[in-house]
Amino acid sequence: MKEKLAFLIFILILAPILAVAGQIEGTIEGFNCVVQGKVCPVGKEDSMAALEEVFVVLTADEKVYCLPNVDRAILARHLRDRVRVTGEISKKFKSINATKLEVWDRDCWKKTWSKEEEAELRMWLELGLIMN
Q1: Tag placement on the chain: N or C end, fewer CB within 10 Å?
Q2: By C-alpha distance, which of 53, 16, 11 is closest to 32?
Q3: In whole angstroms, what is the distance from residue 102 CA to residue 82 CA?
Q4: Pairing of the two strands 108-114 and 82-90
Q5: Are 98 and 69 spatial neighbours (Cβ–Cβ below 8 Å)?
């Protein structure tokens, strides 16, 4: 019992250090392009984009963040776009568990995806209320 309590206290103390709520800004890029220096797609229409299996956010100071809970199709749609991602940032794994994705459009940020909206759509699909 004492061991479980000690473990829970350890997790509660350590959790804020490993992940913090925040935002990152950068551009959506292909992982191979950024990390391995491979050929980069010039835009979402470039056939090289199909070869990228993972997309990341590259910040202005060249930090790379993975977005493990955002579908590849959504990220591919915004390849090379300026984005702002809100969520829990993991310092240990250089990733962000996104709750919202916004894209810079002319003079303002436009929300293009949110965890909440995706969950709602999934619910409607499971209930059979969204059909072709």
Answers
A1: C
A2: 53
A3: 9
A4: unpaired
A5: yes
The model's pLDDT over 60-105, given as tens digits with 9 standing for 90+, comes to 999 999 999 999 999 999 999 999 999 999 988 999 999 999 999 9
As a dihedral over the C-alpha atoms of residue 78, residue 79, residue 83, residue 88, rounded to 10 degrees, the angle is: 90
Q: 41: which DSSP letter? A: P
Measured distance between the N- and C-terminal CA atoms of the chain, rounded to whole angstroms: 54
13-63-73 Cα angle (round to 5): 95
Identify whether the C-beta of residue 20 lies closer than 8 Å to the C-beta of residue 9.
Answer: no
The residues, ordered by sequence, that sit 6+ positions from 66 with a Cβ below 8 Å of its Cβ are 31, 54, 56, 93, 94, 95, 96
Distance CA 52, CA 89 (A): 23
